[in-house]
Each structure stands twice: as C-alpha cells, then as structure tokens.
Amino acid sequence: MMKAVVLMAVLAAGLTACGPARFDELSYSVDTDGGKGVALFTCRKSSSGKCIFRFDGAASPATSTIAVDETGAVSGVGPGSSYCATTGADSAKCNPGTLQNGKQAIRHAKRSS
C-alpha cells in the first residue's frame, strides 16, 4: 500500500512540473468586397489579445495589427490575394490564407509547450 501512495505522489509531482497546456489560438473573420478591392478583418479571439495580418502585393497597409473585437480595413486586395495571420506570439506560425469574395470565418489552434 505504501508503495502505491509513493508512486502516486511521484507521478503527481511529475505532472505538476509540466504545468498547464498552453494553446496558440487565433480566430477571425474576413469580409472581402472584390469590386471595391477592400477586405475587412475582424479579430474574434487571440491568445495574445491581437491578430496580426501580413499581405502580399499592393495591399495597404502591408501589415495590420488588430485587437480582439476590433475590425481593420485593408485596401488593394481582392479574391485570390494571399495573406497570413498570426497571434504574434514567439512560437506562433503565420498561417497562410487566400481571400475569397464575401465572408469567411477562420480559426486556428495549436498546442504549444
């Protein structure tokens, strides 16, 4: 019985050292108006409190940082324009995307150590 208690204590201590799992989470929506060449990006959720978007080509601005629950406009883009989105955290990956005409909702989540 004593061995079982000691073993459980050792296992519990090992799991506690790992700490809680962390997630790099990003959720946003995009509303693209191909006729006007404008896209509205709304940051819905981000583990860092902000969504960062980077654009190729003639987009203005080329990089946009938007706080959660805020919306930012980007001009010079349309359907087929490429961009990437990230939380800006050190280990966060910039997830590539391609704009489509109309509304899109995008969500990324990744467990980090």
Structure notes:
The chain has one helix at residues 2-18; strands at residues 22-33, 38-46, 50-55, 63-67, 71-75, 82-86, 95-98, 102-112. It has a single domain, classed as Immunoglobulin-like. The protein contains 1 helix and 8 strands. The protein has 113 residues and is α+β, with helices and mostly antiparallel strands. The chain is 15% helix and 50% strand. The radius of gyration is 20 Å and the shape is globular.
Q: What class, by secondary structure content?
A: alpha+beta
DSSP helix count? 1
Q: What number is the mean pLDDT?
A: 83
Beta-strand residue percentage: over 45%
Could you say how many structural domains there are in total? 1
Radius of gyration computed on alpha carbons: 20 Å
Numbering strands along the chain, what is their spatial order in the largest sheet?
5-2-1-8
H-E string:
HEEEEEEEE
CATH architecture: Sandwich
Tell the overall outline: globular
Assign the CATH topology. Immunoglobulin-like
Considering the protein shown, what is the CATH homologous superfamily?
C2 domain
Report the biggest beta sheet as strand number plus sense, adding barrel if it closes: 4 strands, antiparallel
| Helix content range | 10-25%
* Strand runs, count: 8
Span of the ends, CA to CA: 35 Å
Low-confidence stretches: 4-17
CATH class: Mainly Beta
